[in-house]
């Protein structure tokens, strides 16, 4: 028999399945369409340009999420990236576990899960772009398209972050200098179909620990986010990339831009793919808003990462920005 490509979810988490009769309650979630930004408007006259920038800033304040079309990443690159990603995940499980972009880049499930609500029904390659570019495999099809994809998405991220910074009335040079291709991360996600429990988490609720995330998802759907205290399912748009604000931008903007909790719900019938690009600074970058009164104490990205890793180890989940509040509000 051919070895399965799926990680051994059922065998590994058997005890959790026996313990409970239901997966987390996520049904009845309404669908929403994210604010849509056409980046071609940035190439038009001064008025359209200004309106487009304002829309980006407003969505980042009110939703923490938006989608962009005419984003400059050509269809061929998106298609090729997805094909190579699908091929990689179709390899037998043992090959994937041994396939190393760098140590620990392949992940699946949730090692620390003690109940079903803590289990992420997904597998991923979480790759540092600097490791990718230095890889001796950079000339194989997969690594080469990942490198190409990372470069294009990095340019888009720089553009968006520049706009968001200038809409705050702040200079973006430092940010642009600190967030370069090699300090960013690329994550290839696969959510196998989950027929056992119809609404299992593909990824548990979380916020991203970066400035912004650029997400390319397929047409299956499953991404959900919190808006005004309720969960909403994001309607997939094959032409668009989804952008969300991460913790670092929330802190840097002194809570103006929102790093919003999101999660993925696995589909009972179809597998789903997504590719996430995390726009991050170097570890020594100091995150400080410079606006009084400061909500958070200043911290380096390295410090933030270390704290997140420590909290995950001790509490089983990330605490994130509340750790860095200057005073309790
Ligand atoms: O797959 C998705 O839609 C979201 C992925 C995500 O939130 C992440 O990788 O941080
Ligand atoms: Fe995320």
TrEMBL record:
Q: Please give the Gene Ontology molecular function terms for this protein.
A: gibberellin 2-beta-dioxygenase activity; metal ion binding
Q: Which residues form a coiled coil?
A: none
Write down the top EC class of this protein. oxidoreductase
InterPro entries referenced in this protein's UniProt entry, alphabetically: DIOX_N, IPNS-like_FE2OG_OXY, IPNS-like_sf, Iron_ascorbate_oxido_reductase, Oxoglu/Fe-dep_dioxygenase_dom
Question: PROSITE patterns under this entry?
Answer: FE2OG_OXY
Write out the similarity annotation: Belongs to the iron/ascorbate-dependent oxidoreductase family.
Name of the molecule in the record: Gibberellin 2beta-dioxygenase
Give the organism the record lists.
Answer: Salvia divinorum
């Amino acid at each position: 028999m051919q070895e399965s490509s799926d990680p051994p979810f059922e065998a590994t988490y058997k005890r959790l399945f026996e313990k409970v009769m239901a997966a987390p309650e996520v049904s009845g979630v309404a669908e929403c369409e994210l604010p849509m930004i056409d980046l071609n408007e940035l190439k038009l006259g001064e008025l359209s340009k200004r309106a487009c920038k304002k829309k980006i800033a407003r969505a980042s304040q009110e939703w923490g999420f938006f989608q962009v079309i005419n984003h400059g990443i050509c269809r061929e690159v998106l298609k090729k990236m997805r094909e190579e990603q699908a091929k990689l995940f179709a390899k037998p499980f043992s090959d994937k576990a041994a396939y190393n972009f760098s140590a620990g880049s392949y992940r699946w499930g949730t090692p620390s899960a003690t109940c079903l609500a803590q289990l992420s029904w997904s597998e991923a390659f979480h790759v540092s772009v600097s490791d990718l570019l230095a890889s001796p495999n950079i000339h194989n099809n997969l690594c080469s398209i990942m490198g190409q994809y990372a470069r294009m998405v990095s340019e888009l991220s720089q553009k968006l972050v520049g706009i968001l910074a200038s809409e705050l009335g702040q200079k973006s040079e430092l940010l642009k200098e600190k967030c370069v291709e090699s300090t960013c991360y690329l994550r290839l996600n696969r959510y196998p179909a989950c027929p056992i429990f119809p609404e299992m988490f593909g990824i548990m609720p979380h916020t991203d620990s970066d400035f912004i995330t650029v997400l390319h998802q397929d047409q299956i759907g499953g991404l959900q986010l919190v808006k005004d205290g309720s969960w909403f399912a994001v309607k997939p748009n094959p032409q668009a990339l989804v952008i969300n604000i991460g913790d670092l931008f929330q802190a840097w903007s002194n809570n103006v831009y929102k790093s919003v909790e999101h999660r993925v719900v696995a589909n009972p019938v179809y597998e789903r793919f997504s590719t996430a690009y995390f726009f991050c600074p170097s570890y020594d970058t100091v995150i400080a808003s410079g606006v009084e009164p400061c909500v958070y104490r200043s911290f380096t990205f390295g410090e933030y990462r270390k704290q997140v890793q420590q909290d995950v180890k001790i509490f089983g989940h990330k605490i994130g920005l509340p750790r860095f509040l200057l005073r309790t509000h």
